Amino acid sequence: MNAQPSSHVDAARLQRRHQALAAIGATAAGGVDRQALSAGDAQAMALLVQWGRERNFTAALDAVGNLFLRRPGSQPQQPAVLSGSHLDTQPGGGRFDGSYGVLAALEALEALEDAGLPCRRGIELVAWMNEEGSRFAPGMMGSAVLSGGRTLAETLAVADAAGVTVERALQQVKQALPPLDDRPFGTPVHAYVEAHIEQGPVLEQVGIPLGVVSGIQGKHTFRVEVRGEAAHAGTAPRRQRRDALLAATAMVQAMSAEFQDEADLTKFTVGRFTVFPNAPSVVPRQVSFSIDLRHPDSAVLRAASARVAAICAAARGPCEVQVERLVAADAVTFDAEIRARIHTAAERLGVTRLDLPSLAGHDAGLVSQVAPSGMIFIPCHLGITHHEQESAEMEHMVTGARVLADVLYGLAR
Amino acid sequence: MNAQPSSHVDAARLQRRHQALAAIGATAAGGVDRQALSAGDAQAMALLVQWGRERNFTAALDAVGNLFLRRPGSQPQQPAVLSGSHLDTQPGGGRFDGSYGVLAALEALEALEDAGLPCRRGIELVAWMNEEGSRFAPGMMGSAVLSGGRTLAETLAVADAAGVTVERALQQVKQALPPLDDRPFGTPVHAYVEAHIEQGPVLEQVGIPLGVVSGIQGKHTFRVEVRGEAAHAGTAPRRQRRDALLAATAMVQAMSAEFQDEADLTKFTVGRFTVFPNAPSVVPRQVSFSIDLRHPDSAVLRAASARVAAICAAARGPCEVQVERLVAADAVTFDAEIRARIHTAAERLGVTRLDLPSLAGHDAGLVSQVAPSGMIFIPCHLGITHHEQESAEMEHMVTGARVLADVLYGLAR
Asked: CA angle, corner B79, sides to B78 and B83, nearest 5?
């Protein structure tokens, strides 16, 4: 058995860095508020650049604000191996979502240095710009532009609630950073591996410290507009009413029944439901509602998605209904070789693991369109995420970083 | 056949007064914005007092702001006959709702004067304070205090959105009026008759110029709070969710089905439906919604009302539900003798009429608790009301005033 970097993963260092990063944007309740391209996000990026420079890793920024730290390989013409996650958080986010994947990748790079293991390929840590999508919508902007799913121009033009564009916010971030190399889009990527907390309860429930992520469930979203007619609650007879709320609630109930599956894999959510004029004695003239529909199998998801408009039309009664599909992201299946490499590395370390799908979206899903990709999950407490009480065990963080280090080494050596 | 005041109803005078009143608070779109105890309302009251003084009618104000113009009778110890409606409007109200009943009563009093017909009883025109309830909630405040349904103290303490109380607004109104007599609460009332536009489409549809109102349908209202648990739309399995929106929409659909009656008399409306946190990718943790339930038959209404909590509980799934009844106003049946008098007066004038219930609430419903009461409806175009396009034909306004004049004379002579 060859020397592996996992033996040089340093739990104390990982913990120090985790605490240092969590201090940037720390909230009173123990969480983190560090939204994309904020002053806190810039400060976190600057800290990462500093940690990289201490190990002679080159820092680079691409035009959309993705940050890279590069450990060079002996054959610079070979595409590099990428690993990382994101530094931004939800407004009331936790200390692990995103940060853990960035720090696990850094720990892997440092372990390789400490072990004195040169590689043929470079390995790059990446911190993707705006994964969360809370300040600038939608999320996963940085990986979407790198993988060709969105244009740079449309992304730079997106504004936050205060009217500040991504372009302007990115300029401010750059002013807070030392001068960095430019990293051109289209730079080939050999493979991408992302470590992340599970954001679900499964690993904790079954007592397994590592998840080998099979893929990311697909997600289709819709906006439904139901139009009826306002009327006096006391005088308009039922048969003459065009009650938009009665129609919309019938649609929601019909879809809820239609999308129930015994295996409980389909996720159907109406999270936003807004009524006009929303007055107790007025029959509603309009309802707008959202649909979020997810399934790990793209074929099943597409079939369900294709039925949405017909179900709404059948339940509309005397109202009009318009169904607009906003997002149609198919399910992602991660690269079989990467998954096998994660299993092998874990096996060699004696780490038990579980194959499981990711129910939340991740940058890895988009990167998988341009390079073989995979993900490692570690357990998080009760599946709580996007919340200040998000938590994970240092023991699991170390295990994930050890497996990641060996996988990256295997891909790059 | 005796002389009747109806022959002295003066269409030109009624039209002039209608136009003069509609000019106070007139909106650009042809409607009226003259909310309760506003400067416009005070100006309308002052105009009414002036018109009364021109005919030597005594003006009086009670402690809650109801305005009275009295044509004295020959036997002052006999309780007077009352007739009127209200001068206040919705913010974007029309020129007929309320105003017509006030002007029809004034026209009746003037016709009696013009005809030189003395009466045993006094006849009082009344303009009720705050029927609409748009500035100060709830509506029908003036008639509620007079009939004992609300206390004077609680009513004077009600504040508008700007924090101005009824008491303060009433002081300002008094400053805009000449000194008026005080009218004590508890003054006996012999009978009350109110003329009003139908606020529904029936009379126009059947081509009948006069409605003899059988009563006012009852109204029960509720606030329902459904509590579940917020969860991630992508990760929370259906069986573990406590989706407040799914539960609330099931409740609405269950009630809608349960309250459908073949005769289309039950009015079931969910006008307000508010979702928390109302975000597309978050399973809703709470929904608050209103129920407005009406029926002309109190027994039927009470039975339906009594089922609301059980239907909501049965449909709550894994959520919690709290049902609070806010209003429980039984149906009102107007006095049989008053209704017969309206029929007789109309018959003598050759006016066809229809018995019909009022689906909207009116001050007459409250006054009926302290005196025999009734209502006369005239057609309004398409049933449009609480709207600047509210309209009624002058021909019908005159017919209504003629019938009203003869009915009042019959009650007071």
From this structure: 135
Q: What is the pLDDT of residue B2?
A: 62
pLDDT digits (tens, 9 = 90+) for A357-391: 998 899 999 999 999 999 999 999 988 888 889 99
Question: For residue A138, is pLDDT > 90?
Answer: no
- Cβ <8 Å between A275 and B274: yes
- C-beta separation of A367 from A373 below 8 A: yes
Helical (H) or strand (E) element with A214: strand A210-216
ipTM of the complex: 0.75
Averaged pLDDT score across all residues of chain B: 95
Q: SS3 for A25?
A: coil
Answer whether residue B1 shows pLDDT above 70. Answer: no
Q: Is residue B310's pLDDT more than 70?
A: yes
**What pLDDT, on a 0 to 100 scale, did the predictor assign at position A314?**
98
CB A203 within 8 A of CB A80: no
Q: Which of B269, B273, B278 sits opposite A272 (nearest CB)?
A: B278
Query: Which whole-number Å values give the CA distances from B359 to B90, B100, B281, B304, in the listed order?
Result: 18, 18, 41, 17
Q: Which of B194, B132, B201, B195 is nearest to B380 (CA)?
A: B201
Picking from B233, B256, B267, the nearest residue to A233 by CB comes out as B267
Chain A contacts of B233, Cβ < 8 Å?
267, 269, 271, 292, 294
Whether the Cβ atoms of residue A134 and residue A145 lie closer than 8 Å to each other: no
Evaluate if residue B227 carries a pLDDT over 50.
yes
A80-86 vs A189-197, strand pairing mode: parallel
pLDDT at B220 over 80: yes
* Residue numbers of A between 287 and 306 with CB closer than 8 Å to B: 290, 292, 294
pTM confidence score: 0.75
CA angle (B100 as vertex; B95, B104 as ends), nearest 5: 155
Q: How far apart are CA A301 and CA A217, in angstroms?
A: 9
Predicted pLDDT of residue B279: 82
Average pLDDT over residues A43-65: 98
Tell me whether residue B236 is exposed, middle or buried, using C-beta atoms within 10 angstroms of its C-beta: 0 to 12, 13 to 18, 19 or more: buried
Strand partners for B126: B68, B84
Between CA B307 and CA B319 the distance in angstroms is: 19
- pLDDT digit string, tens, across residues B62-93: 999 999 999 999 999 999 999 999 999 988 88
Report how far residue A25's alpha carbon sits from residue B268's, in angstroms, rounded to the nearest whole number.
Answer: 50
Query: What pLDDT sits at residue A1?
Result: 45
* Of residues A236, A279, A290, nearest to B280 (C-beta): A290
Task: Tell me how many residue pairs between chain A and chain B have CB atoms under 8 A apart.
Answer: 153
According to DSSP, the β-strands at B218-227 and B332-333 are: unpaired
Residue range B145-174: average pLDDT?
A: 95
Give CA separation, B350 vs B210, B213, B214, in Å: 11, 18, 20
Phi, psi (rounded to 5 degrees) for A195: -100, 145
Chain B residues close to A273, C-beta within 8 Å: 245, 273, 275, 278, 284
Question: Are the beta carbons of B330 and B189 closer than 8 angstroms?
Answer: no
The residue length of chain B stands at 413
Calculate the alpha carbon distances from B394 to A58, A361, B212 in Å: 87, 66, 19
In this structure, the number of other CB atoms found within 10 A of the CB of residue B296 comes to 22
